[in-house]
Amino acid sequence: MVDYRQGHTAAWIAYFVRRGHLAARPLAAGVEGAVYRLGEGLVAKVWSGRPPADLPLTRQVYADIARHRPPFATPEILDVEEHDGVLVTYERELAGSPLRPDSATEPAGRHLTPEETDALLTVLRGLAAIPGSESMRRLTVQGDDRPLWQGHTRFPDALAALVERAADRHGDLLAAHVPGLSGTVRWAVRSLAALRDTPVTVIHGDLVPPNVLVDDGGRPTAVLDFGFFTTAGDPAFEAAVTAAVWDMYGPHADEHVTALTRLFATELDHSPATLALYQAAYALTTYDLFATDGGDGHFRWCASLLNRGAAGR
Questions:
Q1: Which are the contacts of 219, defined by CB distance < 8 A and separation ≥ 6?
Q2: pTM here?
Q3: Do the Cβ atoms of 47 and 11 come closer than 8 Å?
C-alpha cells in the first residue's frame, strides 16, 4: 500500500521549537499536510499540499461551518504564516480520539459496532444541517483546475461536469482497468443531470476514520481535515462517499460499503440508487489524485468500485 500522506520532518519540529514551542512533536498527517502538536491546546498544520493563496477562502469556510454550531467541534484557524513558500496555520487542538484507525494501516473487523454507526450518523446529520455557503461553492476539489460550482447553479450538474473533466485527465489509464469505461462515464453524466434539486449543505468529502474524533463513550467530539473534496452539495453525496471510504482496504470492505450504504439510505432517507450513483461519481473523479500511473491503492480501489457495479446499473 502506498501512503500519500504528507510526512513529518525533523526540520519542521526544529522550526517550531525555534518559534518557542519547545514541546513540538508529530501528531497526524493527511493528503494536504502534516500536523504537529505544539502544547497548550495548540497545533500547527504544514499545508504542503495547498498553495498559500487558498487560505482566506479556507478560513471563511471554517467560519461558515462553525457559525452553525454543529454538535461537534470543527477546525478554527487562529494564526497564519508562510515559511519557505509553505503555508502554516496555527489552530486550536480538537479533543478526542480517532473513531478507528485508517483501514490502510489497520484493517477493520468484520462487524460494524453500534457505537461506530451511531457516531457516523451523528456526524452526517450534523453536517447536513449546515447550509452550503458562497465560500463553499468557490472551493476547488483536489485534482481539478477550477471551483466545482463555477458556471453551475445545481450540484448534480457541477459534479457531472467534473466527471467529464476527470475522465479527460487520465481516462485512458482508467479504461485499461475498467472495461466499458466510456459507457460508465456517459451513464454517470446523464444520471447526475437527471437528479432532482436537493438541499445544498456543507460537504466534508473525506470522512475516513481518522477524521472523526470521539470521546470515551464513542460520541463524536470533532470532525477534522476539511479540504480534500469539501464543497457545498447534496447531503446524499456525503453519505454515499462516507459509506464507500469508511473501510477502503480491509478484508471486509465490500461488506461494509453495502451495510453502510443500506443503513444511510434507511436512516437518512436517501435513495439507494442515488447513493450508488454518487459513489461511482466519486471514483470517477478521484481515481488519479495520488498518482498518474495506476500504481497506487486509491486508483485500484476506484477501479474495483466501478468494476463491481457500485453504480447498481
A1: 119, 122
A2: 0.93
A3: no
Domains of the chain: 10-92 (3.30.200.20), 97-307 (3.90.1200.10)
Helices 272-286, 181-193: axis angle to 10 degrees equals: 130
Q: Which residue has the cell 486508483?
A: 299
The residues that bridge with 259 in the sheet, in sequence order, are: none
Instruction: List, as own/partner pairs, every contact residues 36-45 make where C-beta atoms lie below 8 angstroms and the sequence separation is at least 24, other chains included.
Output: 36/8, 36/12, 37/93, 38/90, 41/92, 41/93, 42/78, 42/90, 42/91, 42/92, 42/93, 43/90, 43/91, 43/92, 43/93, 44/16, 44/88, 44/89, 44/90, 44/91, 45/88, 45/89, 45/91
Residue 246 has what DSSP assignment? T
**Is 31 a residue whose pLDDT tops 80?**
no
Cα–Cα dist 281/256, whole Å: 19
Q: Kindly report the length of the chain.
A: 313
Name the grid cell of 312. Answer: 447498481
Name the E strands within the chain. 25-29, 34-39, 42-47, 77-83, 86-92, 97-98, 201-203, 212-214, 220-223, 231-233
The DSSP output letter for 24 is -
Taking the CA of residue 186 as centre, how many other CA atoms within 13 Å lie in the half-sphere pointing to its CB? 4
Convert the pLDDT of each residue in 110-140 to its tens digit: 899 999 999 999 999 999 999 999 999 999 9
Contact at 8 Å (CB) between 214 and 97?
Answer: yes
3-state secondary structure labels for all residues of 41-56: CEEEEEECCCCHHHHH
Look up residue 6 and give its DSSP letter: P
Bridge-partner residues for 212, per DSSP?
A: 223
- Specify which residues 34 forms β-bridges with: 29, 46
User: In degrees to the nearest 10, what's the CA dihedral of 14, 22, 44, 223?
Assistant: 130
